[in-house]
C-alpha cells in the first residue's frame, strides 16, 4: 500500500466516502442553499456566527480561505453592523467576528438606553384662532421657536463615537446609565429617572386608551374587498434611493429591531422573522391588503399584528402592522403611524419629532444613510400618497 492510501484508496477518497455515507449529496445541497441564504437578521452576532460555522462545514469550497470566510460572514451581517467591518478592511475571519461582536453589542446597548432622547418642551404659547379654511393645517417648520431649536442643535457637535449630537463625554460602551451615570442599570430602568417621571409608568391598557388608534388611510372600496397600499422600500438599497425615508434601531416589545420610517408607505409593516424574535403571532385581518412595491410588484397579505409596545424616550407608544416579507428591515413605520403622532420629519438631519397628547414631544435621531435627501413635510408626503 502506498503512503497516503487506506485500504486501496487515497485519504481524500476515503473522506469523500465517509461524507457521502453520513451526509448524502441531497443533504449537503440543502445545507449549501441554507448557507447561501444565511443572514444575521434579528440574531445576535454570536448566534449568527454559530449558524455560519455549522453550515460552513458543508461548503468548504465557499469558505476555503480566511478572506473568503471573512467576506461571506460580512455579507450576511445586518446593514447597521456591516459598514463598520468594511471600513476596517479586515482580512481575517477571527478579527471580523470580534469587531462585529463589539459593534453589535454597542448598537444594542445604545438602542436599549439612548436611541430615543426626549426634547424639552418650550413654554406654552397662547393659541390663536385660525380661519376655518386652515383649521386642518399644521405648521411643522418655519416659526421662531422651530428656528431656535434647529440653530441650537447645529451648535452642538456631532460625537465621533456614537454619531449623535451631544456635549461632554460619550458614555457609549462604558456600561453605565446614561441618565445618572451610575453602573448596574440602564436609562429606561433608572430609579432616579422613574422618580422624576412617575406619570410615565402606566399600564399598557391605560396607554392604549389614552392614545388615538391607528387609522390607516381608507381608499375607495375595491370590488374584491382588498385595501390598496404601497411602500417605498423593503430593503436598504431601495430606501437609499428614495427621499422621505430614515432608518435606525428601535425597541419593540423590549427587543432591538432595525426599523425604517417611510413617508411613502401608506401602512406600517412587520416581518415574520421579527414576530418570531419578539414572540408574537399574527392574526387574520378582515380585509386583505394589496401592497404595491417600488419595483412595481404587488403582494397580498391578510396577516396583521396589533398592540406592539414601541419604547421612545421613556414613553410607550402602541403600533399595529401588517405582515410582509422584508430583506433588511424588521419593521416599517408608515403614514398611518406617522400621522397619528403628527410627525415632523427632517430626513437631512436624520430627525423625527413626534407630538404626543398633552403638548409633549419626543425627537428620535436615526442612523446614518448613504444619501442625504431634502427635508420632506407631512403635507408633501400626503401629496405624494395621493398620486
Automatic annotation (TrEMBL):
GO terms under biological process: proteolysis
Annotated spans, Disordered: 113-159, 191-231
Chain intervals with Low complexity compositional bias: 193-213
PROSITE patterns found in the cross-reference section: ASP_PROTEASE (PS00141), ZF_CCHC (PS50158)
InterPro entries recorded: Aspartic_peptidase_AS, Peptidase_aspartic_dom_sf, Retrotrans_gag_dom, RTL1-rel, Znf_CCHC, Znf_CCHC_sf
Pfam families reported for this sequence: Retrotrans_gag (PF03732), RVP_2 (PF08284), zf-CCHC (PF00098)
GO MF terms held by the record: aspartic-type endopeptidase activity; nucleic acid binding; zinc ion binding
Domain CCHC-type: 177-192
Keyword entries, A-Z: Metal-binding, Zinc, Zinc-finger
Highest taxon, organism lineage: Eukaryota
Name the record gives this protein: CCHC-type domain-containing protein
Organism name: Striga hermonthica
Taxonomic lineage from the root: Eukaryota, Viridiplantae, Streptophyta, Embryophyta, Tracheophyta
Amino acid at each position: 500500500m502506498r503512503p497516503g492510501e487506506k485500504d486501496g484508496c487515497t485519504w481524500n477518497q476515503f473522506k469523500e466516502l465517509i461524507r457521502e455515507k453520513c451526509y448524502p449529496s441531497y443533504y449537503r445541497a440543502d445545507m449549501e442553499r441554507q448557507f447561501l441564504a444565511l443572514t444575521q437578521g434579528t440574531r445576535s452576532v454570536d448566534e449568527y456566527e454559530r449558524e455560519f460555522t455549522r453550515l460552513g462545514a458543508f461548503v468548504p469550497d465557499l469558505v476555503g480561505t480566511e478572506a473568503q470566510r471573512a467576506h461571506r460572514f460580512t455579507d450576511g451581517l445586518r446593514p447597521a453592523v456591516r459598514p463598520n467591518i468594511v471600513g476596517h478592511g479586515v482580512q481575517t475571519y477571527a478579527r471580523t467576528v470580534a469587531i462585529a461582536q463589539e459593534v453589535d453589542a454597542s448598537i444594542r446597548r445604545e438602542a436599549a438606553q439612548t436611541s430615543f432622547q426626549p426634547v424639552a418642551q418650550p413654554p406654552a404659547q397662547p393659541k390663536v384662532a385660525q380661519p376655518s379654511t386652515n383649521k386642518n393645517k399644521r405648521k411643522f417648520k418655519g416659526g421662531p421657536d422651530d428656528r431656535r431649536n434647529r440653530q441650537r442643535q447645529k451648535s452642538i457637535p456631532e460625537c465621533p463615537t456614537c454619531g449623535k449630537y451631544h456635549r461632554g463625554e460619550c458614555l457609549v460602551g462604558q456600561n453605565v446609565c446614561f441618565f445618572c451615570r451610575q453602573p448596574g442599570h440602564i436609562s429606561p430602568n433608572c430609579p432616579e429617572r422613574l422618580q422624576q417621571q412617575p406619570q410615565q409608568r402606566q399600564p399598557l391598557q391605560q396607554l392604549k386608551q389614552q392614545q388615538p388608534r391607528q387609522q390607516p388611510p381608507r381608499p375607495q372600496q375595491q370590488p374584491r374587498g382588498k385595501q390598496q397600499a404601497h411602500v417605498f422600500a423593503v430593503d436598504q438599497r431601495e430606501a437609499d434611493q428614495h427621499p422621505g425615508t430614515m432608518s435606525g434601531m428601535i425597541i419593540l416589545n423590549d427587543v432591538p429591531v432595525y426599523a425604517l420610517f417611510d413617508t411613502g408607505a401608506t401602512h406600517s409593516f412587520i416581518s415574520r422573522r421579527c414576530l418570531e424574535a419578539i414572540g408574537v403571532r399574527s392574526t387574520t385581518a378582515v380585509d386583505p391588503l394589496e401592497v404595491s412595491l417600488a419595483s412595481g410588484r404587488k403582494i397580498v397579505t391578510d396577516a396583521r399584528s396589533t398592540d406592539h409596545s414601541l419604547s421612545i424616550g421613556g414613553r410607550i407608544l402602541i403600533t399595529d402592522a401588517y405582515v410582509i416579507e422584508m430583506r433588511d428591515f424588521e419593521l416599517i413605520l408608515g403614514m398611518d403611524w406617522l400621522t397619528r403622532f403628527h410627525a415632523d420629519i427632517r430626513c437631512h438631519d436624520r430627525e423625527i419629532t413626534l407630538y404626543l397628547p398633552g403638548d409633549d414631544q419626543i425627537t428620535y435621531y436615526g442612523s446614518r444613510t448613504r444619501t442625504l435627501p431634502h427635508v420632506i413635510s407631512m403635507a408633501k408626503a400626503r401629496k405624494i400618497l395621493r398620486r
